[in-house]
Amino acid sequence: MSSQKPEAPNREISTVLAALRSGTPGAAEALFPLVYTQLRKIAGSYFRGQSPEHTLQPTAVVHEAFLRLVRQSADAFLDRAHFIAVAALAMRQILVEHARGRSAAKRGGGAPQLSLQHPCVERQSAASGGMPDPVDILALETALSRLQALAPRQARVVELQYFGGLTAEETAAVLGVSKSLVEKEWRRARAYLKSELAGTAVPGADDGP
Asked: Roughly how many angstroms between the first and final C-alpha of the chain, as a whole number?
C-alpha cells in the first residue's frame, strides 16, 4: 500500500468510505493513502521514547490496524473522524497485545513504555498538568479499564482524543455531545488516570453531565 499522498479533505474520505460500505472494488486501496498521514502521526506519537530494541514499529501498527478494520468492519464507518477513532482503538489493541506478549516472554517483566505526550491532547490540555510519561502500556490499559467501569463516557473521550488524536470538536461529534462537555470529561479522566498511574487513590470518576 502506498503512503505518499498527503492527508485528504474530509469530503473525499467520506466519499471513499461510502464506496467501501457499498462494497465498491478497490475502495480499501483508495482509502489507505487518504488516511495514512493521520494514522501514522498517531502511531508515531505512541512510540516516542521507546528503546531501540522495540520490535514493533509505527508503520507496522498502522498497516495491521487498517487491514483489521477493512476486513471486519468495512460497513460501519460514517465519516473520517469515526474511521480514525475506530482505527486508533485497533492500534491500541495491537499495542496491548504486543505488550502482553513481550511481558509474558520475559516472565512478567519488560512491558514496553508508551509516551502519553500526544501532541493533539497536549495542545488542548496544557493548563491541566501532565501525566507520568512514559508509562507502561499495560498499566495504562488497566487504568482505562477501571475508568471504563466507573465512567464510560470519560474512557471514550480518552480513547478518541488520546488514542484517536481527535480534536475536542471531533470527539463531541462522534459522541453526540457538546465540546464543553468533552473538555470537562477529559479533565476528569486525566486527573483519574494521573492518580491511577501514580498509584495514589482518588474518588471515583463522576460521569454525570
From this structure: 43
Alpha-carbon Rg for the chain, nearest whole angstrom, is: 17
Nearest to 44 by CA among 10, 95, 96: 95
Fold of 116-209: Arc Repressor Mutant, subunit A (1.10.10)
Helix (H/G/I), strand (E/B), else coil: 136:
strand
pTM of model > 0.85: no
CB 196 within 8 A of CB 143: yes
Q: Are strands 113-114 and 135-136 parallel, antiparallel or unpaired?
A: antiparallel
- Whose cell is 491532547? That residue is 121
Assigned CATH for 1-109: 1.10.1740
**Domain(s) of CATH 1.10.10.10: residues in the chain:** 116-209
Q: What is the pLDDT of residue 23?
A: 83
Cα–Cα dist 99/181, whole Å: 33
What does the alpha-carbon distance between residue 183 and residue 174 come to, in Å, rounded to a whole number? 14
* Residue 163 to residue 55: CA distance in whole angstroms: 20
Contact 145, 159 (CB under 8 A): no
- Predicted local confidence at residue 13, as pLDDT: 87
The residues of the chain scoring below 50 in pLDDT are 1-6, 108-111, 116-130, 201
